[in-house]
Amino acid sequence: MDYKVAFANAVEQVRSEGRYRVFADLKRHRGAFPRATWTQDNGVEKDVIVWCSNDYLGQGQNPIVLDAMHKAIDETGSGSGGTRNISGTTHFHVELEHELADLHGKEAALLFTSGYVSNEATLATLQKILPGMVIFSDELNHASMIAGIRHGGGPRHVFRHNDLEHLEELLAAAPADAPKLIAFESVYSMDGDIADLNAIAVLAKTYGAMTYLDEVHAVGMYGERGGGVSERDGAASQIDIIEGTLGKAFGVMGGYIAADAVIIDAIRSYANGFIFTTSLPPALTAGALASIKWLKQHNEVREIHQERAATLKKMMADAGLPVMPSVSHIVPVLVGDPVHTKMVSDMLLAEHGIYVQPINYPTVPRGTERLRFTPTPFHTDEMMRDLVGAMQKLWAHCNIARMGGQAA
Ligand SMILES: *Cc1c(COP(=O)(O)O)cnc(C)c1O
């Protein structure tokens, strides 16, 4: 077998569908978020505005966070030196887990090296601990949740996105005495819609199910202290396991779950994705700790963030751009095919210094390819005017259907 041809064919398949992924080479400017330098293929540099970062609140550049990271390196060095079991539990890890438990009003929390790992490891391990557990999974759940659910190997049912009638139908049809888990997200990051946490918790109680909530796109950004939608909606105590990331709004890296102490202790004891990997470097945990503490006390940042997102949505809608009906800080604009999405993204970058990555299958269903804007408290009115102006030009140029269905 010619292995190289097989790999080349696999890549060609992606390319022929117009969804070959090209990563923009960026260098962010400390203190000037959301500005960055883009290095083009030919080596030429260009200054750009980043419109698609998941560093939603600019915490990746908050001096409070950077100072904590510098201090941790100066005091303790670079890596943690081992798994949590073998000398990799630093004082920073312990403190951070306490902080995360407090953030969600839970007894305990457990750190992982990323949000992906926390979902994969926890969802697989829950099925180990509760054999025969039936999992009910929202159809738009993140790839990391799906990976964990599959890895666990137990019975599972997928319910239509945010469709609680369908969820209830499936719950009612499952054996009454089987352990059950409902796995879902709060803010869905590609459409920007938000699940009804309290209603799902009521269903869980009715059918004797546990609840597992991915709050990756909400922690730091919703709730009076940044505890997520579960805090905002007063639902945290009704959710058994809350999962989050330290890599998006908190601006650093890492993942975690928060839950009752006994649940955390069990996952800690059985999850290979926790046990057999070197723990996060102290600098990351120190930075995340500083970020969480700071955001707890700065609700005004969350208010500005929501205002910025609402303003951009309104400006785009007023300009007749097909902005999708998001109720969160995420501003998706529908294009509807991968070739045009990439073309618009490329032209925004090359001609207007605007960086927004195309979102393609399998991240979103085919036919719903889109641009996904994430305005932060640091995106100004002027940046928004430039963006909307550039998009209007491109929409006319590319003849993409606008709101109402007619071609512009
Ligand atoms: C990004 C993401 C994750 C993974 O988090 P990382 O910390 O980036 O690994 C998990 N769930 C959702 C919904 C995400 O968007």
Overview of the molecule:
The chain is an alpha/beta fold and 408 residues long. It is 42% helix and 15% strand. The protein contains 14 helices and 14 strands. It has helices at residues 3-16, 63-76, 91-103, 115-129, 143-152, 164-173, 197-206, 229-232, 261-270, 272-275, 282-296, 299-318, 338-352, 381-398, and strands at residues 25-28, 35-39, 45-50, 108-112, 134-138, 156-159, 180-185, 209-214, 241-245, 255-259, 331-334, 354-355, 358-359, 370-373. It has a 7-stranded mixed beta sheet, sandwiched between helices. Strands 1-2-3-12 form a 4-stranded mixed beta sheet, with helices on one face. Helix 3 (91-103) packs parallel to helix 11 and helix 13 packs across helix 14 (381-398). The radius of gyration is 22 Å and the shape is globular. The model is unreliable at 403-408 (pLDDT under 50). The protein binds pyridoxal-5'-phosphate. Pyridoxal-5'-phosphate (PLP) binds at residues 114-116, 119, 142, 144, 185, 189, 214, 216-217, 245, 247, 255.
Query: What fraction of residues sit in β-strands?
Result: 15-25%
- Rounded mean pLDDT is 96
First CA to last CA: what distance? 50 Å
Major sheet strand order: 4-10-9-8-7-5-6
Q: Compute the CA-based radius of gyration.
A: 22 Å
Structural class: alpha/beta
**Main sheet overview:** 7 strands, mixed
Which compounds are bound in this model?
pyridoxal-5'-phosphate
The secondary-structure element order is: HEEEHHEHEHEHEHEHEEHHHHEHEEEH
Which geometry do the CA atoms define? Answer: globular
